[in-house]
Amino acid sequence: LCHTSRNKACEIIESERVFINYLVSTKSNIFLKENDILTIRKNGKYIIGKTLGQTKKGNIVLEVEKYV
Residue 19 burial by CB count (10 A; 0-12/13-18/19+): exposed, middle or buried? Predict the structure, then answer.
């Protein structure tokens, strides 16, 4: 969502700029569910939509909408 590298994303999470359902998240291994609200300071607020499926490597594909 931030169009950054994985290392930079970890830095953003560790600097307490990521909120899941308005609670600070400092762990990078949390699974998101439908209708969760993901807030990234200086980037925006997003609503997690439905699960679309899995990739060949087993990663989960989610539908994400920008919260307006």
Answer: middle
